[in-house]
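Protocol step 6 of 9: fold each sequence in the batch and record its structure tokens directly after the sequence line. For illustration, a two-sequence batch is reproduced in full.

Sequence one:
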Amino acid sequence: MSNIIALAQPRKLSPTQVNGKVCPPIRRASTNPRKYLTPGEVEKLRRAASGGRYGQRDSTLVLLAFRHGLRVAELVALEWSAVDLTDGNLHVKRKKHGSESVHPLHGVELRALRELRRAHPESRWLFVSERDDKPMTTSNVRKILTRLGIAAKIGFPVHPHQLRHATGFALANKGVDTRSLAAYLGHRSLESTRLYTDTAPNRFKDFFRD
């Protein structure tokens, strides 16, 4: 029984007791209503970030994660060498054996990135800890998004991967085809991308139209 408890502890689940004996913890279902954020909710996060102590950094972090479908590990690994502020391009290196690509950067992103660059002209990394000018960790980002979700009154816990899913659903809703969306998100298999295109509500927009 002690082995069961030891295995349960890293998962941070609470054990229960029956007749004085400790039993394995009960895994509870997630309370999140969905795995993605809407563009409106992403904007709420950015507004909540802008009022914080590190508003420019955190707002830009949310923006890039959403616009480019970045996983949290890809986000914190971004270096300025991947950013071309003159031609407006971002070289995206994917984790999980994903395909690399070059994404365009548009007005609001370029303005945010230029301001971020002015704040840390010597930094190698886009998103750095204010304390020691080292790259942020994935844990830093998760904590920031949790806090921003509460401040923005999203109504359910916010985590980084919801921003990547938000990208997929937002582009699918705009009618982006499966292959283009797969390339943008770095998917090597179209099966991973059909999650977004098969459930896009714009497929049904003319049903029962008056």
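Sequence two, same batch, same settings:
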Amino acid sequence: MAGDGPRLEGWALILGASSGFGAAVARQLAACGMHIIGVHLDRRNTLPLAEAVQRDVTALGRRALFFNVNAADAAARAQVLDAVAPEVRAAVPPIRVLLHSLAFGTLKPFISDTEADALTPAQMEMTLDVMANSLVYWVQGMVRRNLVGHGSRIYAMTSAGSGRIWPGYGPVGTAKACLESHIRRLAVELGPRGVTVNAVRAGVTDTPALRKIPGNDALLAHASKANPGGRLTQPTDIARAIAALALPETQWLTGNIIGVDGAEDLAM
């Protein structure tokens, strides 16, 4: 992958760096010249995924600072930002790209006939906190430490489920809709600082996170047939798009929900 894509410099902070979109973006940005800060939460059985990403980044001659912590935990967030601040402050801007790609939430319908199967307030709040609100808190922490500035790019992964109804996707779909609202407000508030903020709406992609959605096989089959390109979206499609969007020429592109799906959303 070395040399594959535009030439970029500086640091990228990837939340959810061990698999799916986060892993693909980490590898792509490293191939384009960037150093990677990876935040992931893995137990022993999935830790090799994060280690593989870290090896691939360093094999390209880039620095890789990886943290196996809960990205939604306030203390862990402060620990990571405090640890990387001395490393990145010499860059302009210190952190050029932030990608929020956290996929951990409850997959349940809102309504159930039995209390045992019902969505609980704790499950709803956890899903919103991890998949939406944590973006705001990371950005707050970065701003307070002067880790973003003119030319910084902030991206968050969303999905068509923010507006479409998929069985069992209720809490996550709600979190995605909330995330998109956060993107718009952050774009306005960070505009004077020269920081752009956009959401990336991927097409249906066969990732570990999607495999947890009830009825995922049917969703994958339908998307594969409906997509005008004749295939599913791949993590590398998202990675290449984000690398291109990180160029200085996209400074005026902010506050958007950018579809990277081969026009799938129009055809579904």
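Proceed to step 7 once all outputs are recorded. Observation for sequence two: The beta strands are 11-15, 35-40, 64-68, 97-100, 153-159, 196-202, 257-260.
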